[in-house]
Prior knowledge:
Layout lengths: L1 H12 L7 H12 L3 H45 L6 H43 L7 H11 L1 H34 L3 H31 L6 H11 L3 H27 L5 H28 L1 E3 H8 L11 E3 L4
Antiparallel strand pairs: 1-2
Helix pairs in contact: 2-10, 3-4, 3-10, 4-5, 4-7, 4-10, 6-7, 7-8, 7-9, 9-10
Keywords: Membrane, Transmembrane, Transmembrane helix
Amino acid sequence: MEKQVLQEKFITKEPQASLGTLGILWAALRIGTRNGKLLVSIMIYVSISFSLLTIVRHLALTPILTDLSSKLTSLDHMTRGIIETDETLNRGIIKDVVLLLLLQSVILVFSCSILVFSSVATISSTYEAYTAKVLTLKDTFLMIRGRWTRPIITSFYATLLSFSMITLFSILVGVFSVISYVFSLILLNRVVAIFEVACYIYLAAVFMFCVVVSIVEADSGGLKAIHRARELMKGKTLKGSVLMLIFLLASGTVSIISLVLMRKREKQGWVRLAIQISGVWALCLAKISMFVVFTSSTMNVERAMRRLGWKEKKVSMLPFILVKLS
């Protein structure tokens, strides 16, 4: 009963009218402070994990890449000199390539595992903050154990749909590019390019909503989560896309700065690694912030169902649902 009273107080305290982008960001900042210690712990854990993975990647891949580069240079000299290539050299190149692909695959698996942990932990803890419940790190791990499969399944379906749409857009862009080249319609080419970027941002926003829905909704996952996210995006596409654009620009800025700084330190391997790790921490902060913002964009389920015309449908057991973007 006390928990319900706290929820009602919070609902009436938070603005239920239209929120702009800045209002959503401010609301996310306020709700993030409710489980601030836990979010900081998640941030540190995820950043350290990615940093260790970056160090392992550097130590494991650098010797292989150096050896492969040397062998390819030798092969190039043999080819130019019309000398019969050494079979041992060819086998060595193939071995390095296979080992490189294997290590990259292992690193990708670990990266995805860390990303799943960070998304489920951050979204769950942010969601629970709306119920005035303070979680511990142990509670978060218990939640992850019961929720980690849903975002993976949802991400798989969302990736397939996104890839299909991106492929279709690429074909259309190619067709319009040919038309604009033939008829010298430069403006048309630019309009199509802008449209493609806008579609990518929209798909990224829908993808993020799908992940959040699959985690906070016990009965949502896979195609159902995608359908729910699309319904919730109706009339709120612009604000959702603007939020995603902000985080894409932030992540892109961090990546560009890191690349520029690393290029200036080409021969200083450990300095480059330190710059790369600093970039990893900044990107982790941006990613965690994105999870908090998209999760904090919530509204009461009954009000959401009423607005969307789902009054007669089964209401989820959870007291909140995405998206307070209208």
